[in-house]
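Hi everyone,

Forwarding the result from last night's run.
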Amino acid sequence: MPRARRSAAVKLKQSKLDSGNINRAEEQDESEWEPRSRRGNVLSKRQSLAQYRLKDKDLKDIPFGQDTWTDTDEEPAVERPVYRYQEQDVERVAWEVHHGPDGLLKRLKRDYQWYKRSQMSKNPWKRLKFDAPSWFTIDTPSDEDRWEETEGLHTARLQLPDWLWVPINKYVDAQYLSYNAWRRGRKALRWREDLLDAAVLDLHYPTRPEDVPPESEALDALRRILELAPRYDDRRQFKAGRIIRYHCADGEVGFAWSGAYLDRLELAWHCKQHPILDTTGPGSGLAGWETIRWEVYDKFVECTQSLRTSASANGPQWVDDARMWLVGRTTHRADVPPLWRRCLSLSPPLSEEYRALLPLTDDCGCVDPHD
């Protein structure tokens, strides 16, 4: 291209850019511009330049305060100046540089897209920090959206009940951050799909009642005991012997309440002053232990991390030792799955008195229709 034509093309392109910038600025009424930053916030010079994408010359007309800090990396230590600016003053200057509040916001969003492409694929401890004002928020997908990101995950979602879907995915998130953070992109999604597919196959529960049992003094007494339940992550409970740790046949570590705490629970449901069974009767439908057993189950899951995965020759396998709290008097004890039998034999056994309170169930806790 001849030099004259190239020069004319450059001028035309620049005039279009200038016209576009003017139009963008004119689209916004300056009288309606309101600072997004909080009044009184103070930024250092470095923060002002980095967060608002400015240069030294942009700050020359802004009033500032001066302080000093001691640089101990020097020998001897040196006093160095620190310049501090009101954030709202810096934000107003950024409006002029970036063509209004919307222009500033677009610049920050554009920079964040570049940051995601260049940094998010790195290990978390090697990523650079993304500098932006405190008011700048990123629209990230919610947990619910992220947990159904693929067709396979959505299919698993349709097959798992709501009350189970959340704890399963929180466990998977924790496992990812602890042991699988090196997985990226499709590999991470495939890994999550495999775990959720295994959950659909391994975890079977009775239908959970939607209604809560009627209020009573007896139920309140039981709930007070459950509130005092020892937790696996409380070291004081280990020292006091209120929660125990045992090694399972598959090499994993399990947690369970001590026999002393189980005795306290039994006292709650056998208390003569507040007998729970006075109004419910042994396993009498949704108003009785068919519903109450779920409160004991929930507390056990919370306190012992019983819902987890276990390694097997066929891949990950889900285990939930807390399911034993849902199983009533069943005539098929010999058919109990091996992992279930393991938790029943190695953790403190549940009393026959507790089982007698539950409805007659199969090995997964489903109420026997012939009860």
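The CA atoms of residues 27 and 356 lie 75 Å apart.

Cheers,
N.
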